[in-house]
Amino acid sequence: MDDFTPPGRSVDIELGSQEIITIDLDNLDPDPEDVLSLLKDGQCKIWVWTKLAGEYWRRGYLEAADKIARSAIESFQANGTASSLPPIYSLLANIQIAYARKAPKLVLPDARQDVMTGEKSKEEYYREAAQLLNTGERAGAESGEVGGTLSFLTRGIQQLATRSMDDALRSFDGVLIEKPTNLVALLGKARILYARRNFREALKIFQDVLRYNPRCTPDPRIGIGLCLWALDHKSKAAAAWQRSLEVNPSEWPAQLLLGLEAINSSKSDTHSEADKAGLFLQGTKLIGEAFNANQKSAAAANALCEVFLRKGNYKRALKLAERTIQFADTLTILTEGYLRAGRVSHAEGSMSHATKYYSAAVEGQPKHVLGAIGLAQMQMQNDEMAAAIHTLDTLLQPPNAQRSMEATVMLAALRAHPRPGVSSSDVAQERTKARDLFDRVVKGLEIDDVRTNGQPPSKASRNIADDMEMHAEIARLYQGESLERMGKALKEALRISETVGQIDPRLINNLAALNHLEEQFPEARSLYEKALISASLLGTDAGEAMSTTILYNLARVYEDQGEQSLAKDAYEKLVSRHPEYVDAKIRQALMLANLNRHNDAHDLLKQCLASQNNNLNIRAFYTYFLIQTNLPKPAKEFVFATLKDHDKHDVFSLCAAGWIMYHQARESRDTSSKGIEERRRGFQRTAEFYEKALHLDPLCAFAAQGLAIVTAEDALGSLGGALNPTSGADEAQKRLKNAREALDVFAKVRESIDDGSVYFNMGHCYYARDEFDRAIESYETALTRYHDSHNVSILLCLCRSWYAKATKDQSYTAMNQALKYVQMAYHIQPTDKAIVYNIAMVQQKSAEMLFTINPAKRSLRDLQRVIDQAAHAQKLFASLASDKSPMVPYNRDIADQRRKYGDNMLRKGDEHLAAQRQFEDEAQAKVEVARRKRQEEKDRQEEQERLRMDELRKEAEKLAEERRIAREQAMEWTREVRMESDEERERKPKKARKPKNDVGSGDEAEPKKKRRGKLKKSTSEGDTEEQAMFSEEEDAERPAKKRPAKKRVVRDDDDEEAIRPQKKQFKSKAMLSDTDDEMS
């Protein structure tokens, strides 16, 4: 437009040839009718129409500008001069684009607050602008005029508004080729580069625009600040926006951006609480001013909506959210609008509307974290757990997986929560996935702590890390999987609970139970007591329920610590407060049973059954009690009643029934065909009960162990009473095979249950395979680890294994071990006559074994001991054979036969003792001879060594004496030389120094070629004295040369050398050799 506008703030319109009317552009009438009449009457040129329409637009009279532009089109078409209309078409297209800026992009048909159903949308305005531009181009083409700069700029603006970035960039580049400083084209290109995240190039262009025109509108400082913010120069960005606000106080973009910057700064932990509050108030004020300046701005409405949402003004917040949705130009702002509308509806309790808005947000941006979390919450409210899991899983899974701790925690909690209709295998998989997700969250929190470098972590990380419920959920997930991880999570939850000052007794109780399971009884007791005190302070029904459970746990730990009186008091207190608390009564019954007060225990259990006859736990314990008190028939009737009348799928009752049927069949002594058939049928029913239990619970280790026992003992084969047993060799092979298969099962059962019976049964299998060492190892593990060396059955099995090993290896040591274990069993049950029989048998077998082995492999002491033991065994056998009891656990005839056999064996005892004594005497004599020879040889060698050392000592003393004499002579000679030298110096005056070329005559000249330097000084006094001695001898043979003395530093250890004459010393080879020989 500037190309057609002459300078000045008025426009002259000529009416006819004489009348000219001047229109003052600064005082335009808002009603353009008079102006239109003048324009039509004066048949003004096109630039006048555009000038006046543009001026109306600039003053805010957009409708008047539109009316003038359309009237111009009618006027020029009526006059037949439509070829001049392209500028008008461009102007009118720009007016439509201006209308579009204030029009909604999307009209919500069901808006509740911001109703705009009668408004035209942006798309309609943009479509009309495109039609006007096309019409203008056709008009220009018909008149032969090519579209100019205005047409290109308008087309570029329209393309930019409709997000046709490539076409808009080509349009702006076309303008910039002709006019590189065109501000509109530069601003458009910079906006496109910014949208494409080419922030550095966009920043450069915005800065160029500011340099070309510092008063340019729209203000390029806004774009400069946005680019700097994207480049992480936030302080510079805020400075740019602040300057823009100073230059253009009435413009809203700078206010909005500065308001958002202030609110963001208020979230930083580097500010104090007062500063945060001040920044937040400043930001909300600026955002409010920006929205008041332009109420059609989606960005301002979105920011202001968050403020009202936090204030709880949901009605105003919903209107702003709907305004954001309807006027949003970008997908991000649109998604934010849907999200905030969903949050408002969620807060108001309108779940259907919230679901709709959250779904729209996720549909637009499937990876939007808050949208996905909001939608998942609505799905949870609607009990659509699977859909919620799918929503969050889609968010966290590739492609473009989001890293959101909040969503991860939420998904983990959903997967950990059991859902109806999900199989047990799927539940286990879901729990595994939940554990993995929680592990990812914990590792993420640890990484955040490392990244902060001593600074406090982010608020989101702190909120998640301090979520007590999350850590409690982690503990529940690891229950039964990892006690270590469970304990760690419980401790963290307890720490958080203590930090906030709301200690949950349940956490302390759970942590105590964990220590209890790990047999850390003092720690568990302390925590139980702490939890009990904490629960008693609550004073509500919930506190009473917690106190009851915690007191029961405390009583259990009293039991485990051996504090029976404390446990008894605790159970009595529980029963007095809650007579229906059957768990406490069961523990009381067990304590009474352990004291052999079976009748009292039986009464308590009957009370429990009377009050809760359908309680399967009570029925299970009562079955156990009947079996332990050796009442198999009532136990059988009771357990079959449980299966028939209460729950035929009770796994414990099935296993108990299998155990009872097995022992009934195994102990059957009826050898008739009917008895054998009943025995076999009993074993078959045993297998059926165990198989049914495993079908109901494939992980039931007790049922698996029962089947393994049936397999190992071949209960369905020969043990079942088969009429046609296989041959001995085949039977042995089958026994080994069955034991091997049973061992495989026991090995798996051992991983499932921590019980001594597993090792006990494994020992049986190893014994059946004649692997006595491994059998002994298994028995000892069961005895020491689980029964504190006080289980009679295991002790007797150890005796049997050591006995078999001793018999196989002919080992007296192994037989002694067998005797030790059977005697331990006797000390526990001294009235058991079977044990007495076993003791007598082991003692007699010990004597028999030593009688048969080579005298070299036994000792007289051991032989005497076993003879004494055999004599004791004779007394035991005699006592057992004469026992008149009606029922004894052995055969009296065999006992009497063993006694008679012992009598015959012991008659040879003296003979064996004499032979052993003779053997040992002969062996001792041989040993004594050998020892004497060794001693004599040792004495001879010691004497030789002593003589050699005496000789060496004498030689050393002689050498030391010779050296002493030599040193004394050297010292004497040195003193004489000093005295002569002093006298000579006193008698003779100094002589002039001879020239260096003077040489001696005769013998003195010869040594000059071979002379040596001074002998090196030694640190030892002896070497110094020897040097002095050698010099004296040389001086006595030849005259000395006199040289002037040189000044030098003399050390303390050089005193003796320093007082000698300073002259060259020469030694002949013969002299040195003689000296060496003399010294040696």
UniProtKB/TrEMBL annotation:
Which stretches are tagged as biased composition: Basic and acidic residues? 967-987
Which Pfam families does its entry note? TPR_1, TPR_19, TPR_6
**What InterPro entries does this protein map onto?**
Ctr9 (IPR031101), TPR-like_helical_dom_sf (IPR011990), TPR_rpt (IPR019734)
This protein's GO cellular component annotations are:
Cdc73/Paf1 complex
The keyword Transmembrane helix is assigned to this record:
no
Q: Where is this region: Disordered?
A: 930-949, 967-1080
Q: What's any GO biological process attached to this entry?
A: regulation of DNA-templated transcription
- Which UniProt key words apply to this protein? Repeat, TPR repeat
> Which protein are we looking at?
TPR-like protein
